[in-house]
Amino acid sequence: MDDVLLAVGTQKGLFLGRRQPASGGSGGRRWEFTGPHFPMQAVYSVGIDTRRDVPRLLVGADSSHWGPSVFRSDDLGGSWHEPPRPAVRFPEDTGTSLERVWQLHPAGPAAPGVVYAGTQPGALFRSEDDGETFTLVRSLWDHPQRPEWEAGFGGQAVHTVVTHPEDADTVTVAVSTGGVYRSRDGGASWAPANAGVQATFLPEEQRFPEFGQCVHKIAQDAADPDRLYLQNHGGVYRSDDSGARWTGIGGGLPADFGFAVAAHKHRGDVAYVFPLSADAHRMPPDYRCRVFRTEDAGASWSPLSEGLPDAPSYGVVLRDAMCTDDAEPGGVYFGNRNGEVYASADQGDSWRLAVSHLPDVLCVRAAVVG
């Protein structure tokens, strides 16, 4: 079985898990965790860069005393390095300062060494040295629509970055609450890419604005990198043209509200969501812990619950707290605000509790590291 590293960012530190042989000769696997790394720091973002000969971990941690910083490790969390000067910082002329790093995204094979950071306030930074230093992407910061972006409940942030594995010039970001923006020229210019996505919180006659949607998360299809899946603040969507146009695919779900969406790393047309009721509760519909999977790009959805807790279950999965790995046949993971992390090694068909009693889970990342 592949050696998978599972990184869990929480409200009070980072926990790192590795699968271990189960005791008693059962042939199963259990998880062994270390941590907390960065205790008393909120970890909102983790990037696992497996493009290097030695995988690099990048962590966006936020100390209430020292402020936000980006740490890196080249020995899978055995030791950590923090640069003497902040890796992500706003230039003085912007008149602002970094509040939080929401996303650390190693770009695809078409852009070796490139790592993107999405931040609060809403901005995109680019690194060309594997995440050691970052530069503000001025074209997005200076976009004429940026001053009109509002702050979502969690703040105004670039929280999602998607890069094309074969075309380094195509970069897509999601902003809360600015919507989706896409660059076709490596970040030199940006255009809103929200056609077809509703802003359900606006009056009926204003439901489809050019920008201003509250996008919660975007995931990229494994077989067709121009196909994207989007979990909105009300609505689940698919685009087949890198965001130029979106179509609703939430009809087979018990609720179309939620925060997280993830795509299978090897199989095309396969994606996962964790629906939440859209009312004031924002808990799993019928208080049932279920992941929903599509295997036909959203034409239909199937509930996955084998091994998950029975009702009532109240755990909420946040936007970056669900992910897939690049193992075979494919692992799926999610953590909730109850401090529980569940893992599936069979594409979501069955689940095991990997760890419990953690602080609020903010982000989950997994990758084969050996």
Please write out the topology:
Blueprint: E1 4-10, E2 13-21, E3 29-37, E4 41-49, E5 56-63, E6 67-73, E7 100-106, E8 115-120, E9 123-127, E10 135-136, H1 138-141, E11 157-163, E12 171-176, E13 179-183, E14 191-192, E15 215-220, E16 228-232, E17 236-239, E18 247-248, E19 257-263, E20 271-276, E21 291-294, E22 302-304, E23 322-324, E24 332-335, E25 341-344, E26 352-355, E27 361-368
Antiparallel strand pairs: 1-2, 1-27, 2-3, 4-5, 5-6, 7-8, 8-9, 9-10, 11-12, 12-13, 13-14, 15-16, 16-17, 17-18, 19-20, 20-21, 21-22, 23-24, 24-25, 25-26
Written description of the protein model:
This is Exo-alpha-sialidase. It comes from Actinacidiphila alni. Helices cover about 0% and strands about 40% of the residues. The protein has about 375 residues and is mainly beta. It has a four-stranded antiparallel beta sheet, with no helix packed on it. A four-stranded antiparallel beta sheet has the order 7-8-9-10. It has a single domain, classed as 7 Propeller (Methylamine Dehydrogenase, Chain H). The mean pLDDT is about 95.
Q: Count the domains.
A: 1
User: CATH homologous superfamily - what is it?
Assistant: YVTN repeat-like/Quinoprotein amine dehydrogenase
Q: Biggest sheet, in brief? A: 4 strands, antiparallel
Q: Extract low-pLDDT stretches.
A: none
What's the N-to-C terminus distance? 10 Å
CATH topology: Methylamine Dehydrogenase, Chain H
Radius of gyration: 19 Å
User: Number of helix segments?
Assistant: 1
The proportion of strand residues reads 35-45%
Strand arrangement in the largest pleated sheet: 3-2-1-27
Protein name: Exo-alpha-sialidase
